[in-house]
Amino acid sequence: MNWIEEIPLNGDTPIATVTLPLFNARRVAWLALESLARQRCIDAGSWQLLACEEESGHDRLGPDALAEYGDALRAAGCSGITYISIPEWIKLSAKYILMSEYLKPSVKMVVIQGADNYAQPLRLAEAMAIMTGIVGGSPIDLMHQPCATYYNLLTGQLHTWDTSKYQGRMGRGTRTGGIDMTFSARLFRRLHDQEPHPRVAGNDSWLLAQLERVKGRPLHIYENPTRHWDKGIFTRGMNNLSRRSYGDEAHFTQDYRRLESFLPDEIAERLEALALEAQTGQVHDLISNQNQPEVTPDINLKSKAPPPCFS
């Protein structure tokens, strides 16, 4: 049986929900939480954090660890944390369906946040500004970024992904996947009566297909024109899905920047330490080495307050 824990922080009328699906993510979820705690240019109480996690995971994060971030998230505009605990593992698509039922009534957009990714510091501010407007005469159904920086924890290499160079397509001309996706809550709420994806992978394309289905016509997709994407990072190698896709960097362009050139110093240092653990086999292998002894890294769960807004 599922149980819900509410951690109120600042009000109860957010306009955005940030979904944070978790599974065996304790060692890496700090990355997403640190990035959310550093969001800028956001009104107080304007977004809700909605996390969903299995009790059965051997590396569970838990609500107490989320609560440790309460002060920092409040300072970054978070209204509160809703934590959904489920007894056994379910597919990511099933988590999205479940989370669609727990959006606050005031929410107008749903921001998809990976537990192993660091959101660029204006991600929420840009999503709120763009998704509440009208572009091309109609409301936006999906906003996404054209590019992203990926850090492979198993090789220590950086790569850039450019959606304009990817030829994958699905029905009605919609891209197979998106980067830093933000959906209209009007459509996302209607996921509740959809069927989960039959496969474990392919969740981006499944989300797009289901939301087109409930809308009944192609989605109005808007590509964020800013270049702030290069201040965030996606990681690969610390969850089941990214490990399955490990080795397909042929679709990427190698990026020779150093982490500290675009991430806060403390985040870069912790990421490099995590990569070293992954490369030397100290991090618990989430797929094939279930009996490997656990190593608990020293993770400080209390973030600093967000830096001042961009001028």
Attribute tags:
single chain; 311 residues; alpha/beta; Spore Coat Polysaccharide Biosynthesis Protein SpsA, Chain A; eight-stranded mixed sheet; five-stranded mixed sheet; 9 helices; 15 strands; disordered C terminus
Largest sheet: 8 strands, mixed
- Counting helices, strands and paired strands, the structural category is alpha/beta
Number of domains: 1
CATH class: Alpha Beta
Share of residues in strands: 15-25%
Report the helical percentage: 10-25%
**Full CATH superfamily name:** Spore Coat Polysaccharide Biosynthesis Protein SpsA, Chain A
Radius of gyration: 18 Å
Q: What characteristic shape results from the CA principal axes?
A: globular
